[in-house]
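Design job #97: recover the sequence.
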């Protein structure tokens, strides 16, 4: 009898992400995951008590993948702020199912307006915006949050196939909105 294949936690997480990427989060269940891993459901439940516990870990893995993706590509002659927005939208275009799992699954907790975009609490990002624009910390957070909401709206319409991707149009929308908000915030 051949030795049993050992399924690791990493195998389960990788298979879960693959399943979500290819088929969507609604297809992530023990039976489909076992099929993806080519095993029974026993190894999955040896590692995880239940599917909710697994989904929490998969969500963390998906967020880590997204964060790497967000800073993985750069465009010529593009500001870092615009770059982040474009990469977010590209993620929605290229990883629709993961985007929906991370951002449209009810897993994000909103405490206040600035927490909508949790990166608005990231000092590096906010200091970078303040340095580049001359805005104070609060105005930099406001600029980031407003642009993020616009970017998120565009990304959602792309991820749900409601809008065909047009990079030039999106660049113009983001750039004009950024300039308009900057003008308003500097005038305050």
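Job complete. Output follows.
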């Amino acid at each position: 009898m051949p030795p049993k294949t050992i399924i690791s936690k990493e195998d389960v997480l990788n298979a879960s992400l693959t399943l979500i990427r290819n088929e969507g989060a609604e297809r992530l269940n023990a039976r489909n995951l076992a099929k993806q891993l080519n095993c029974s459901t026993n190894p999955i439940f040896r590692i995880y008590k239940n599917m909710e516990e697994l989904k929490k870990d998969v969500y963390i893995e998906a967020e880590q993948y997204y964060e790497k993706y967000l800073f993985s590509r750069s465009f010529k002659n593009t500001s870092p702020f615009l770059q982040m927005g474009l990469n977010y939208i590209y993620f929605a275009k290229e990883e629709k199912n993961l985007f929906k799992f991370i951002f449209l699954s009810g897993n994000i907790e909103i405490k206040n307006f600035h927490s909508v975009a949790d990166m608005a609490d990231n000092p590096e990002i906010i200091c970078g915006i303040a340095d580049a624009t001359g805005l104070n910390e609060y105005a930099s957070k406001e600029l980031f949050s407003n642009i993020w909401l616009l970017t998120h709206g565009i990304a959602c319409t792309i991820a749900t196939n409601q809008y065909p991707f047009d990079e030039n149009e999106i660049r113009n929308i983001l750039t004009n909105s950024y300039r308009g908000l900057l003008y308003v915030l500097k005038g305050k």
